Amino acid sequence: MSEDHPPRDSPEWNNPDLCPFCGAALSDGGVGFIDHIADAPRCEERFEAWRGQIRDDIGGEWGG
Known about the structure:
This protein is mostly helical. The protein has one domain (1-55). It is built from two helices and no strands. The protein is globular. The termini are far apart. The model has no long low-confidence stretch (mean pLDDT 81).
């Protein structure tokens, strides 16, 4: 598993087929991400930290 996501100016930075936290290829951009973080504790930790930062911005719209 890669430890670094592509740089922000890379065309791959927002590729939904890659984990936004480590850059690993995902089976798909939806459930594949959920499966990935279940198997990658560091990515799950980073996802939870990110979600905590944006939770108030999303408000009642957040379903995750």
